[in-house]
């Protein structure tokens, strides 16, 4: 997939600010610090498109990115970050819930998990939530470069087992550092969006 254009569109704090439903969207979810912003920058090949933060939990709104005027990537706040006040967590959870259940142009979810560790309860909940609402999921295992070759397969199996992974979904070994998994990610996104 050739990226001719990739641009930040808008950040939305509530539904009235969401763009129209004319383009297919893929939503990105994952724990804070898992590498979501890096993932966006890597697959669009635009460094600095999404902010990569040393401080976890920076993303606090739904952030929409336009790709080739053909589809949108939607970055949701990283979950599992304890220092965010409970009230804020609830508001974001509600917005994400509305987005996942009501958005007509939502074609799938990219769930980013840290390849090095078994998925956390938040990850499992998010995956099962998507499955409950019949949302196809691409599980992207990030920071693959931090694992040894012989760890890749057992870690993949552990993640799939803990998630109760649906074999109709796709699992992608990914590294922003080494730019691994980019083509496979786009193949899967294009398949989901019907492009
Ligand atoms: P929040 O928006 O704060 O929730 O974080 P995020 O999920 O967007 O993560 P971000 O892309 O900001 O990356 C977090 C940290 O992980 C940064 O220090 C990145 O440089 C690092 N990182 C991201 N992807 C990779 C990767 O593939 N390999 C390695 N080694 N480090 C990575
Ligand atoms: Mg981020």
TrEMBL record:
A biological-process GO annotation: division septum assembly
Protein name, entry field: Probable GTP-binding protein EngB
Residue span, EngB-type G domain: 22-195
PROSITE patterns to which the protein is assigned, alphabetical: G_ENGB (PS51706)
Domain of life of the organism encoding this protein: Bacteria
Lineage: Bacteria, Bacillati, Bacillota, Erysipelotrichia, Erysipelotrichales
Species of provenance: Sharpea azabuensis
Gene name as annotated: engB
A GO term, aspect molecular function: metal ion binding
Cross-referenced InterPro entries: G_ENGB_dom, GTP-bd, GTP-bd_ribosome_bio_YsxC, P-loop_NTPase, Small_GTP-bd
Cofactors required: Mg(2+)
């Amino acid at each position: 997939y050739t990226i001719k254009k990739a641009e930040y569109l808008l950040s939305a704090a509530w539904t009235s600010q969401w763009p129209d439903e004319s383009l297919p969207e893929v939503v990105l979810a994952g724990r804070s610090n898992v590498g979501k912003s890096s993932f966006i920058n890597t697959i669009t090949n635009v460094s600095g498109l999404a902010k990569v933060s040393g401080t976890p939990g920076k993303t606090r709104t739904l952030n929409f990115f336009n790709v080739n005027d053909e589809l949108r990537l939607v970055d949701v706040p990283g979950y599992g970050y304890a220092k965010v006040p409970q009230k804020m967590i609830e508001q974001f959870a509600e917005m994400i819930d509305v987005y996942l259940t009501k958005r007509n142009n939502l074609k799938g979810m990219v769930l980013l998990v840290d390849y090095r560790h078994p998925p956390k309860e938040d990850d499992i909940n998010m995956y099962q939530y998507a499955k409950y609402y019949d949302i196809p999921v691409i599980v992207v295992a990030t920071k693959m470069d931090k694992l040894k070759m012989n760890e890749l397969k057992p870690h993949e199996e552990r993640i799939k087992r803990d998630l109760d992974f649906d074999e109709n979904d796709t699992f992608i070994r990914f590294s922003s550092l080494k730019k691994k998994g980019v083509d496979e990610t786009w193949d899967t996104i294009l398949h989901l969006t019907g492009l």
